[in-house]
UniProtKB/TrEMBL annotation:
Alphabetical keyword list: Cell membrane, Membrane, Transmembrane, Transmembrane helix
InterPro entries: LeuE-type
Membrane topology designation: Multi-pass membrane protein
Name of protein: L-lysine exporter family protein LysE/ArgO
Organism of this sequence: Clostridium algifaecis
PANTHER family from the UniProt entry: ARGININE EXPORTER PROTEIN ARGO, ARGININE EXPORTER PROTEIN ARGO-RELATED
Pfam family, one: LysE
Localization, UniProt: Cell membrane
Length: 214
């Protein structure tokens, strides 16, 4: 039955998206700090980009990065700068009143940031290509549709579930705790950005050797 391929894709999708990384950190921070409507906009946009990346990896876009080395290093350079900038913004943000916390970011700003934490990460593209490409090669044409549908469903369920859980416990956070979360999240994101920058400077294939979680 084809449903088993859907379930397989669902399980592997959860395994792929669950590890703490830039996407999860950004969604958690948004769920704590933003108004409800902006939170779910952020979640929806993150899901959209995550699914688009999954589909692209399933079709083998990572091979393009590996084939054209200049494209790989362009992504590394601008990705490093963009990710570090996002981390710094989180660290220096200081909420004045937790009950009135609202990042007041424009929708286009949210779109750009979600795109950055998802697509400006060559390791995620390469890992995703190897991860999904391997399964695609072993599946029939029809089975592959069920598999990737399950994979995409996992992204939808994971980020929505993460947002809902964090929002439910949001009132347990006070202003001081939120500030600490911003600092921790920002520091981790800067760490990812610095690793991207190191891979760019080293220029020795470190993008494949150093693991940068999605």
């Amino acid at each position: 039955m084809m449903i088993r391929y859907f379930i397989q894709g669902l399980i592997l999708g959860f395994a792929y998206v669950a590890p703490i990384g830039m996407q999860n950190i950004y969604v958690i921070n948004s769920a704590i700090n933003n108004k409800k409507i902006r939170v779910y906009e952020t979640t929806a946009i993150t899901i959209l980009f995550d699914i688009s990346l999954g589909l692209a990896c399933f079709l083998g876009i990572g091979s393009v990065i590996n084939k054209y080395i200049i494209f790989k290093y362009i992504v590394l350079l601008f990705g490093s700068i963009a990710v570090i900038y996002i981390g710094i913004k989180l660290i220096i943000s200081v909420p004045d009143d937790f009950k009135k916390i609202d990042v007041n970011r424009s929708l286009i700003d949210v779109v750009i940031t979600c795109f950055t934490v998802t697509w400006i990460n060559p390791q995620a593209i390469i890992d995703g290509t190897l991860f999904l490409g391997g399964f695609k090669a072993s599946l029939s044409y029809e089975a592959s549709h069920f598999f990737i549908s399950g994979f995409c469903t996992a992204s939808f369920l994971w980020f929505n579930g993460l947002t809902i859980i964090v929002r439910l416990f949001r009132d347990n956070f006070n202003n001081k705790m939120t500030r600490k979360i911003n600092i921790v999240c920002g520091t981790i994101i800067i760490y990812y950005g610095l690793k991207l920058g190191f891979n760019f400077i080293s220029g020795n294939g470190g993008v494949i050797q150093l693991q940068i979680f999605k």
